[in-house]
Amino acid sequence: MKLHNYxxxxxxxxxxxxxxxxxxxxxxxxxxLAKGEQFAPAFAAMNPQSLVPVxxxxxxxxxxxSLAILQWLDETHPEPRLLPTEPAARNRVRSLALISAxxxxxxxxxxxxxxxxxxxxxxxxxxxxxxxxxxxTGFEALEARLAHEPxxxxxxxxxxxxxxxxxxxxxxxxxxRFDVDLTPFPTIVRIDAACRALPAFQxxxxxRQPDAA
Amino acid sequence: MKLHNYxxxxxxxxxxxxxxxxxxxxxxxxxxLAKGEQFAPAFAAMNPQSLVPVxxxxxxxxxxxSLAILQWLDETHPEPRLLPTEPAARNRVRSLALISAxxxxxxxxxxxxxxxxxxxxxxxxxxxxxxxxxxxTGFEALEARLAHEPxxxxxxxxxxxxxxxxxxxxxxxxxxRFDVDLTPFPTIVRIDAACRALPAFQxxxxxRQPDAA
Lengths: 213, 213
Known about the structure:
Two copies of one chain form a homodimer. By secondary structure, chain A is of the alpha+beta class. The first copy, chain A, has helices spanning 10-22, 41-46, 66-76, 87-103, 105-108, 110-119, 124-148, 163-177, 186-196, 199-203; strands spanning 2-5, 27-30, 54-56, 62-64.
C-alpha cells in the first residue's frame, strides 16, 4: 500500500496511527501541502479534492477521506479492532470522533485559515482566536461526554485504543501547536497521554515522518 | 424512537431521510435552534454539543452525530441498505458523503456564520460569498468524482439510494437557499432530482416538518 501523505496533515496523521495500530507496512508518498503539491495535475487527477490522505492499495484502488479509510482498514484487517462490535458502542465511538472531525478540524485547516486572512482580511490575532474558539467549543462537549459516560476507560472507549483515540490525538497536537489552554479538559489530556505512550501513536507523529521540516 | 430534531437542520434532515428509507416510525421532538432551545439545560444535559439530531431509542440509549446515527441504523435495521457490503465500495460511499459532511457543512452552519458576522464583523455580502465558496469548492470535487467514477448510477452509488445520497440532498437544499449557481454541477443536480422524486426524501423535507416556520 501507498499512503499519499503529509507530515503535518492531521487527517493523514489519523490514518498513520490506524495503520500502525494494525501493524500494516506502507510506502510513504509525500505531498508537500505547504508547497502546493496537492494542486499538481497528477495528484489532482488522483484526488479531485486535492487533499491528503489518499490510500492506494496494491491493486491500484484509491481510498479517500481519513474516517472512511480507517473504517475500510477495520473492515479488511479486523484485528486489533478500531471500532467495537455492538452497534450502540459503535455509534458512541464514531460520534466522539466526529466531534473533532466535523466540528473542530474543518474550521481550522490550512485553507480555511488562509481564507480568513487572505480574503476576509482577518488579523493574526483574530485568526488565532477563531482557532482556539472552535477547539474549546468542541473539547468542552468532548470532555463532558468522556468524563461522564461510563464506557470511557484508559482510552476513549474502554481500555484499548481505537477509532476515537486515533482522531483525538492529532486534534490535541493541533491544539497544543496553537497554544490552546487544555487545563479545562483533564480527561482529554489523560487519554491523549495514554495514547502517546504507545509505539503505534509514536511512530505516526508528524516529527518522525520523512518529509518533516 | 424519538428524534430530537429541527426542521431546518441539515444534519437532522439526513437522519429523517435515513429513517424514512428504512420505513421506521419515530416521534418528532422539536428543538427550535433559532430560539436557542438547544442550550436549555435539559437538552444540553442530553447532548453536551447542544446540536441536533439526537436519536433516542425506546430503551433510552442516546445516539449522536448524524453520520454515526445513520450507520447505527444500517447496522441495526440492515434492509434496505444505506451502505454497500464490499469494503472498497463502502469507502467510496462514505468518502462521497464526507465531502459534504466534513468539507462543506461544518463551515456553513448557523454558529459559524454567526461568528463571522458577530465576532469578526464580516458583512452580509462577505458571509454569503464565504458560504458559496465552500459549497463550490466541495461540489467541484464531488462533481468530478460522481461524473468520472464508473460506480455512479441513478444515485451516487448504483441505482438505489444510499448513504451518500442522504447527505447530498440536504447539502443541495442549502446551496439553493443561498443561491449557489449549480450549473457547473450537472451530475449532482441530476442525482438530487432522482432522490427528491422518492417519497422517503419528500417526507423528510424541512417544509413538511411539524416545526417548519
